[in-house]
Amino acid sequence: MATSVAGEGQQSLNWIISDHQTKKLTDLPTELLEHILCFPVLKHLDICNVSCCCKRLHDVCHGRGKVWGHQYKLRCYVLLWYFVGGLALVRSVSQPCVGQVLGDSFAEIESLGMPEHFCEDELLFILNSDKRKSLTLKYYAKKILYFLRQQNILRSLKTFLEQPAEQQSALEGAILVDQYCNPLADITLNNISAQLDEIAEKVKKMLRIKNPSHPSLRITQELQRQVVCALNSVLYEQLQYKGNEFDFYNPLNSYIHQVLLRRTGIPISLSVLYMTLARNLGVQVEPVNFPNHFLLRWCQKQRGSEDIYDYVYIDAFGKGKQLTAKECEYLIGHQVTADYYSAISTTEVLLRMVGNLLNIGKRGEGNEKSYQLLRDSLDLYLTINPDNVQYLLLQARLYFHLGIWPEKVLDILQHIQALDPSQHGAVGYLVQHTLEHIQHKKHPVTPEVKKRSVSEHLEVQYSVGLIMKHKRSGYNCVIYGWDPKCTMSQEWITTMRVHQLSNGANQPFYNVLVQDGTCRYAAQENLEPHSAPLEIGHPEVGRYFSEFADTHYFANEELQTRYPEDMVETLCTVQELYHRLTPGTGNQDQALATDQNNHRAMPM
């Protein structure tokens, strides 16, 4: 048989050599063509190009054949390396401390050159798999997808900013801001535009009812006034849009898709919608960067007039109310110069919009959500205005504080020094400590291992993975760590009135993930096992746990390494609390033990 195969191979080779001057590539046997097209140097784009040459090569490269099967295997291995690399990068900059944000140091990911659609498909497949399983894998998949989409949106924003000013749409820019801050949401320009077109149709319908002869888009002053009145009526009376006075600093007020969904926003987001609708209906309103209250202006006389009194000013936050220049000052309670009544560019609109988000991030409570908003808004602001020294320094300090991207911090500091040498004091301090951080990363500290069997840990009653209820505050949570005694500072102990507890600080304290998205440090005497365990909807659950099992969470490999004896204790506690009255206890014991062995062998 081997001789026969070898003989056939020699005949094929002789046929190629003897007829090489008359034969074409497409005359080669299918098996040989497939072998050639499976060479490692050929990428998926090369295969696409080859398959477009002729029908013969198109048939060889069919979707279920050997060639694409080979490409799929290659890309799977790259994605696996890519994904594991992403896990390692995230884990290398994360410390499981209370309230600390998990860093996203994905600097190396961009160099992998993976096709975006392929990565997204694979990551989305992971995220859409069984809801309760592979929580750690999903946690990191979500972070990688977040990063990849943001990089793509930043490229789109840079392309947008390179367009001539007159071609830039405030709506498109606002959508890019929205997409960057919400990269996992389904937000598209087409979808937003379609919603605005529906509103515009309602305005036209109202115009036709009130004035059947109205041309809708023909430019005359009186007809424009009718359009504005109809727009106000539809937007604020029929559709009930309004300014969000009661929750003004909610970042959702700045996201266009949320303004359309919730029908409320802040002056600038409502103004962008109002301006887009008005212009689509033939009324040329312009954005005005008025202090403390963004406005629009509409010229009542010759277009392009520089006289501020030739304009009517529209307050989109105040249900489209029309104001004179003097009334605008009453709105904010003080006088301003004529410069503040001027129209501004789309770039300036975006800077103000992002500036609002940046201020909200700075006002945050120091949790992951506020840090993420601050990071996102700084990225956007410095993409639009890359030489702002104040925000460059803030970005460097933020990354330094979070302990992420030390190499990028050094690049930012170098840029600051080139722009403003007077900042050498702050720059020098950060450079020194960032270099120390880089050295520290080269020699990572082994995390402390806590065993329940050690004598000083015998008072620890609860274990990681148990779902608990706080006796006083009533919140639901899951334990992801513990200390035999309170390890917080004396200042924290005093502020939190720990001394008022019956056992004070001299009792076990637990790191818990709370249902409301916060991380807390709770005393043992304040916690009790939940009578009816439920899944904890905390964004960091996947960082510590691999699976939710109805009554408890299974610690992932990393957490089991730190608390090697806890999962056995958790399973025993669960068995005692929730299964002792259930028929067939013996079978359940066996199932739980099997689950434990399986999870010990599971990778993160």
Automatic annotation (TrEMBL):
Superkingdom classification of source: Eukaryota
Domain Hemimethylated DNA-binding residues, every copy: 459-556
GO MF term (any one): DNA binding
Classification via SUPFAM superfamilies: F-box domain, YccV-like
InterPro entries named in the record: F-box-like_dom_sf, F-box_dom, Hemimethylated_DNA-bd_dom, Hemimethylated_DNA-bd_sf, SirB1_N
Annotated region (Disordered), positions in chain: 583-604
PANTHER family in the cross-refs: F-BOX ONLY PROTEIN 21, SI:DKEY-261L7.2
Name of the protein: F-box protein 21
Species: Sander lucioperca
